[in-house]
Amino acid sequence: MFHVKLPGQDAIARRADERVATYRVKLPKKMVEHPFRQVAKRVTIALSLLVAAALIVYADHDGYNDSSDGSVDLLDAFYYATVSLSTTGYGDITPVSDGARLTNIFVITPMRVLFLIILVGTTLEVLTERTREEWRLTRWRSTLRDHTVVVGFGTKGRSAIQTVCATGLRRDQVIVVDASSKVIDAAVADGYAGVTGDATRSDVLKRAEVHKARKIIIATQRDDTAVLVTLTARQLNRGAKIVAAVREEENAPLLKQSGADAVITSASAAGRLLGLSVLSPAAGMVLEDLIHQGSGLDIIERPVIKAEVGKTPRQIEDLVVSVIRGHRVLGYDDSAVGTLELTDRLITIVRASPAIQVTPDDRRLPPGMKPI
Question: What predicted TM-score, i.e. pTM, was given to this entire model?
Fold first, then answer.
């Protein structure tokens, strides 16, 4: 059979393969053993069976007849074992004694069956791996609802999702989208599902089921990329909460116009924390503790309970920072708050781990730093 290749056909094929790999979804899975080790182990078992069968035949070589010269040496024994286990069976070497025939019935035949099971099993496993993966993807897509999509798994994206997961979000409810396959492999190793591809393309975001997501975190390295991703994500999902990060503060209004509900300026936020830490290292440590979810003090949003209705923010047990009433965020001492209503929501400071009494006041200041 001849294959005709046209000019540029290899390049076209490579680009097609790259497109398939670019948009591939990877689900986290527990790898018990490396595939190469599995194949090597099965090949070793198959070769061991071959050697064992050859030695068994050679040990009883007087019970076999070779049609060419009448005797069976070690090479003939390996030849007979090979054609027997592979079910080729040319018939040039045959068992003639009762002992040799019984050995073929009770030893060589079971070894032949086991040999075929190993080879066929390896082949079937390779052939069905893709089918099983497609079945997992189909089942995963059908059950995925109200998940969180993280675009960009660098320092910002990783820290953001760690903070969200610290509040109780399951890892199987997180999908990471990134253009780097190595980054996606790292995300999958951490237990998240991953999609490799350019998040500015709608087909890539659709593979991440953005249209069914509840929250979208955009933590790209470039501000222009963040704008395009925000526009595309908002077009696909009108009701999701989109939070984006930008480097330059002047780009924040553009992100909000593109559909982001909240925009964090990473450079300005880091600068403010640096300035606060210079003025008061202890205050900087407190603020850092507040934004680090899951340990020490946490700042959270919660609804007002019935027992708190009619009280002022100062009268409830939790330390209230702000009150959310409708679309307004009011300070705890704002006269417009008055008393709390059942429809209000509170921004409070709580202790994440009551059993571990660690507060910022108990921690030592950095060496050389003194309270101001």
Answer: 0.57
